[in-house]
Amino acid sequence: MSEKKSELASTQQSSAIESDHTGSAVSDSTDEFIQSVRDAVHNTSDLVVKSIPPNLTLFYIDNLVDNQTLKQHVLKELLKYPFQSPQYMLSFLSIPQVKLEGETGKAVRAMMDGTVLIHVEGYTQVVLANIPTTESRALSAPEMESQVIGAQVAFNESLSTNISLIRRYIKNPNLCNENLEVGKQTKTSIAMIFIKGVASEEMVNTLRQRITDLETDSALDSSILEQMIDDNSLSIFPQMLLTERPDKLCAELLNGKLGLIVDGSSLAIVCPHTFLEFFQSQEDQNLRWQIATFVRLLRFSAVVLSVFLTPMYVAALTYHYEVIPQTLVVPLSESRALVPFPPLFEALLLEMIIELLREAGVRLPSKVGQTIGIVGGIVIGTAAVQAGITSNILIIIIALGALSSFTTPSYMMGNVIRLIRFPLILVAGLWGFYGIMLGFCCIMIELLRQSSLGSPYTAPFYPPRLIDWRDSLVRLPLPFTFKRPSNTRPEDKNKYEPEPINPENDEQKVT
User: Fold this and answer.
1) pTM to 2 decimals?
2) Do 362 and 393 belong to one domain?
3) I need a labelling partner for 426 at 20 to 30 A (CA). Which of 48, 139, 374, 491 fits?
């Protein structure tokens, strides 16, 4: 025990010595600075130390810097102007981000972000030339949030590219990009995006505080960060939206919401977000209001159908034969005549088969996955009916419920819809319609107790905000939706003037 304590004490002491060493001032001796940098990065093999006679030394991590920029705009300029001080280098290095640093630890951390350190013998400051590599995936069309009318471009894994996409939509100096950092080990860069004068300062401060208070080793993806900073990470319902569409994020920013972009992730976080907004698509704004309203109502109806259709089938066949129309009793009896299982087990078996086919189709290569999903569903469904394992009516109900679950625009909420069907089927098989009502009440209680960045999750229906009903279950014409959502508490409440254009005011055209 004493040996372990002494070993722990020596480890803590060496860590403290290393921390003090990396946090010390830059040495004016080249040899001492080389040794301090090597100690800070534990003499990693991809550290490049390049000497330029007579008194310059360059430090950088291989594959993190742009080699062409290094040769054309750093090495070429340094060879042209030898014997210069670090202060003078700032004037002739033709790259955007150049600054001086006098602390070894900060210089080493900058080097891990694609920065070249330039040390001059006899000076206690190094030049930081930020020339990170720009390798990234090319822009492509959205895969999870595809639409017919609207932009056909999605975010990629490059933070700078994603920010440039947003600035192409919102060319406004009030669009703020605040840089944050998360992860003691990964030092992941995060951009918090909002529009000054539109977004609530209280929400901006709340989100900033949640991110800066995180004590974690890493946040490698937006979906991980979203679970860390939402209001209730134990809930099954997501409280923040993950989107791959720049136009969707920009539309939400204009409504007074906040955005988070994580370096290395192709999904952006939008908050706050209500439950109903997870079932709204950006394409709803691009369509005429009559069509958009019809599509929204169809989408909400499909979600209700997906959640409750199979449980109602199980409850009706187990306890409540009286609710079945008389014309359907005979077909139901004939279809279940050879089925040896109760409706509860039959429904759970088919639901599990559907989920297995769906998961297999996602994990397999795209062309094979589509074939497995289509052929597997047809073959297994037909074989199950012929073998007497299930009825053909339940096959139709399960397929209709699975098809309805795909209408949800948000992938995260779609997974929730898939999952909550199973406990509802269980309670329907145990207690019939009373069990379905119990499950429905539990879902409503869970929704009512949630919030998103402090805003009500079930707005605008609870608490009731009638003015926000104009763009909720239905979408009224644009002149009626001039108000920003009140749940975001925007500083500027109007998006545009409520008065519509009057054609009578147009000037008479000369024919």
Assistant:
1) 0.86
2) yes
3) 374
